């Protein structure tokens, strides 16, 4: 098997083993209902994590996505409450704003040569601040169109439901995989992550690619915000604090190197599912406290970093001998 | 010596000027800003308040400066603050003396730093990921210590650290000033600072020229852990309880900002602890100033973001090279490498 696929294979193996352990303890977890809920509950995180995967593949980082998700939710809630605009138009408007916001951050990172960490940190403050300015209250969304969207689902055999947002996450992942591996933009992202100087010498348009990557991340964060507002039917400026960390953790657990240039969008999906599985297990158990989620995810992160480290050293040594 | 002092003043000038501008702006919006009063042998006033409220970020910035100078970053300091606050509260409520409690707490912080340091130096993991592990798991560990509740305590000794006063100044101010001066002297009066900068600019070259980079790296992260422990004790002593969920939340970002605003490059190398401390004061002045000047607090984050972006754009390599045309060329700015991306 190709060395590149080892981290992905390890992630999938760990998910399957963990799921098997869960089922052995709680046989009820083997149901399409649990699977469906796993998708629905993590839909917003998954969609944002696809954007984060592209950013990390290019060697950057985007700390603003949690704030952008919250901003989108508040923006939609305020817009739908105070105007008669149709939700679909509001969705488009929100996506335009978040995409432009991401592109602006990308432009600053490229043209002013500032580290993505600091630029997106300022972006996080700005987006969260805009949400605060719109409102500091939690505003419910009671539009009938929301009720229609929420009532859409596909019933799986066994009573499980793939809701609209769960399905949308799967679609976004499918699109992300296609873009990463079947388009020129995807190849450029990998090249940029492999080394900016090398990419430039190869003729990769680094400026345009950087801006597009952060615009994509902004767009997906906006989409994730829409999904989150559908999921909670409300907009609250203090929501989704720290989602960027969960997304980064999912990307790393999914086998993507934080140094950039190597990894798979599909791995991130498995990373999301592993995090969701831990939470589901803790819910099923009932006696375990919520903080074990954090400790377990931290331990998993550590294990995957070690695994990748070992793999890199292993392949490096083999290449030297060859 | 005077020339060294002059170079020092030139280095701190942009940060000091930015701080002065912000303070003057706040005083325009809030006339009584510079008033200081002596009551019961203790200074009161908005300026003292800024020094006092800024204590945790200032302490974190000390350790963060050294870590960033080694070309690293420590994302775990906020979580380590929570762990140490929890440990301090748990120790003092289970009947240990003040000295034992402080010792155990500081040792916990150093241990957290040791863990980060080993991941970075021995296992050779990228600092941002290595410290992410403890950042994610740390709050869980802190909640494990406090068992999910907010552990309150009423030991007068421990509370004194958070709200007491020494020489007219609040205790947290005395602590961060003294600790900052001690660390700055330690790195600048010995070769340590130079070795750290060598390590940050090029680790391989530093190793080849005989610097024990591994030990130095681990020591940098241990210092950062120690700073986080002290900040954690102050934060817990201030509210007389350990809040595992909120103690030090997002302070790692403020500390990193303080260092960057202080002009230390995230790419490692030259650093200045004094500039980072001024950076921490700039951030706290913005926070306090926005509250005092009567802006709605909702605008707090936007104004903060705008000011930070302005300071960063002025410091960015592109702007620097534009300035270079206007002023005489400076030898110290060699950091326009492609790595900046």
Automatic annotation (TrEMBL), chain A:
- Write down a Pfam family by its short name: BPD_transp_2
Q: Which CDD domains match?
A: TM_PBP1_transp_AraH_like (cd06579)
Q: Which residues cross the membrane?
A: 6-26, 38-57, 63-81, 88-111, 117-141, 162-181, 187-204, 211-231, 290-312
Q: Where in the cell is it found?
A: Cell membrane
Its taxonomic placement starts with: Bacteria, Pseudomonadati, Pseudomonadota, Alphaproteobacteria, Hyphomicrobiales
Q: Which InterPro entries match?
A: ABC_transp_permease (IPR001851)
Q: Domain of life, per the record?
A: Bacteria
Please give one Gene Ontology molecular function term for this protein: transmembrane transporter activity
- Recite the UniProt keywords alphabetically: Cell membrane, Membrane, Transmembrane, Transmembrane helix
Q: What is its main location?
A: membrane
Name this protein carries in UniProt: Monosaccharide ABC transporter membrane protein (CUT2 family)
Q: How does it sit in the membrane?
A: Multi-pass membrane protein
Q: Which GO terms describe its cellular component?
A: plasma membrane
Automatic annotation (TrEMBL), chain B:
Topologically, how does it sit relative to the membrane? Multi-pass membrane protein
Keyword Transmembrane helix belongs to the record:
yes
Please provide the record's keywords in A-Z order: Cell membrane, Membrane, Transmembrane, Transmembrane helix
Transmembrane stretches, by residue range? 12-30, 50-70, 77-96, 102-123, 128-146, 158-187, 208-235, 247-267, 301-319
Q: Which domain of life is it from?
A: Bacteria
Q: What are the recorded GO MF terms, alphabetically?
A: transmembrane transporter activity
Where's it found, cell-wise?
Answer: Cell membrane
| Any GO CC annotation of this UniProt entry | plasma membrane
InterPro entries reported in the protein's UniProt record: ABC_transp_permease
Name of this protein: Monosaccharide ABC transporter membrane protein (CUT2 family)
